[in-house]
What we know:
The protein is mainly alpha-helical.
Amino acid sequence: MYQVVATATMVFHFAFLAYVVTGGFLAWRWPWAIWPHLLLAGWGFSTVAFGFDCPLTHVEDWARRRAGEQGLATGFIDTYLEGVIYPQRYAGLMQLLAGGAVAVSWIGFAFRRFRRPRHA
C-alpha cells in the first residue's frame, strides 16, 4: 500500500511541475485555469526563492520509507530531474527557462484576454 502512495505521489508531483510550467498556456484556451496556475506557480516560486519544503516530497519520502525502501535523500527535483534529465550544473538555467516559460504564458494570456477587438 505504501508503495502505491509513493508512486502516486511521485506521478502527482511530476504533473504538478508540468502544470506550473505550462498552466499559463492552458489558460489561453481555458481562462479559468489561470487561477489554480497562479496559486501553484506562486508556491513553486516560493520553494525556489525561499527554500520552502514541498509537502509532496515529504509524503513520497514517508511512503517510500514505510514501504521498506530508501527514502528521498534530497528533494524531488534533485532526485528525479537534476543529474537525470539535465546535468546538475544547469539547474539555474533550467529554473530560468521554466520561469521564462511561465512569464511568456502570462504575457500571452494577458494579451489574449485583455486585447481590444479590432473594428473593420
